[in-house]
Design brief:
By secondary structure, the protein is an alpha/beta fold. The chain folds into 3 domains: about 35-95 and about 230-295, 3-Layer(aba) Sandwich (Aspartate Aminotransferase, domain 2); about 95-215, 3-Layer(aba) Sandwich (Aspartate Aminotransferase, domain 2), CATH 3.40.640; about 295-410, Alpha-Beta Complex (Aspartate Aminotransferase, domain 1), CATH 3.90.1150.10. Helices cover about 40% and strands about 15% of the residues. It has 14 helices and 17 strands. It has helices at about 5-10, 35-50, 60-80, 95-110, 130-135, 155-160, 185-190, 210-215, 240-245, 280-295, 300-315, 345-355, 370-375, 390-410, and strands spanning about 20, 20-25, 25, 90, 115-120, 140-145, 165-170, 195-200, 220-225, 235-240, 255-260, 265, 320-325, 335-340, 360, 360-365, 380-385. Helix 4 (about 95-110) runs parallel beside helix 5 (about 130-135). It is globular. Bound molecules: 4'-deoxy-4'-aminopyridoxal-5'-phosphate. The site of 4'-deoxy-4'-aminopyridoxal-5'-phosphate has 14 residues, from helix 4. 4'-deoxy-4'-aminopyridoxal-5'-phosphate binds near residues 30, 175, 203 and 223. Its EC number is 2.8.1.7.
Amino acid sequence: MGKKMNNWRADFPILAQKVNDEPLVYLDNAATTQKPLAVLQTVRDFYENDNANIHRGVHTLAQRATERYEQVRQKVTDFIHGNDWHEVVFTKGTTEALNWVAASYGATHVKAGDEIVLSYLEHHSNLVPWQQLAKKVGAKLKYIELTADGQLDLQSAADLITDRTAIVALCHASNVMGVVNPIQAVSQLAHAHGAVMVVDGAQAVPHLPVDVQELGADFYAFSGHKMLAPTGVGVLWGKLALLNEMPPLEFGGEMIANVGLYETDFKEVPYKFEGGTQNIAGVIGLGAAIDYLQAIGLEQITKHEQELISYVLPQLQAIDGLEIYGPQDPSLRTGILSFNLTGLHPHDLASALDMDGVAVRAGHHCAQPLMNYLGVSATARASFYLYNTKEDADLLIKAILDAKEFFLNGSC
Ligand code: PMP
């Protein structure tokens, strides 16, 4: 069994502070998460005791650093149920991972006239790289529609995915609508038509158990900083055969086997992609974050977020003038809630909440096509994680009601 729920918050020193004289209520976890002591101490311990560059030194510190870095590759493989540690490429984050798939796999496998199928839910980092590729090779983009309550429309997916489809690229969980996409069903459609399934797991891996093989993913990308690890580290997982076919994109130290004056042989996967000095401490911190999450258990984390959403959603739904985007049934949602209060710009709402110590995001959430689809330019977004509590939810509701009273009912 995992740790007791009410212990988790105490592991995050940053949460103990006051903001604007109010206790901090951190609800911007879809943007980035806070770091537990275990991660902070691991990074510090690495720099205090083992810091050296990896792979290239025979001295003891270099060996220790290399061992600590490479251990995380196996840890990631086990965490997402990959087959083999060679399938795990360390990147800066989801954005870099998806860009690499588009610019390397895409540029060598997608031809003029091929189709790339995305959805209206996509974050710009799973959209712009495909636009760029489509322009470069003359491919066509198609977008899977959403149902009336903001879920992926599987019928639309079935209609759009055809023998012309080369790539289907979808988020596993939306960073705006709080929905989890039926990746397994879509990857079956993709594979039936010979297409490759690319999954943006940035909002899924931190919150639910992920099994890349069960999902039928060919590529799966995620970011460490959204799952308690430091910024600047992420993962591209890919099927070995596909990674082997991909040319590297960054050339330099570390990724080469032999360099002549006119020709170079590259190392094997994953090293051929990891040119230059890597974010060694970040990767080691990611390992500590995975250990922390696994000690609690991803099922426990999903359950905790589900309890919070079931508690907060009906109360938000009861606020007159508050529109909540995505499914209204809490069981269909992750811990992300996007909303707008009629008559108040989401930036003003977020600033008002900040005055009460409540940190939420306002904006287009790097999903402008989705904003257009919803007919808004921006929303406010509260996103919960394992260290959030019902008290946080109560303070969010109170802050929204205060803002409504102040701005809209003229009590100023
Ligand atoms: N995809 C989704 C669904 C996201 O929420 C984010 C981060 N907001 C990204 C991709 C990009 O992640 P990063 O900025 O860590 O590369």
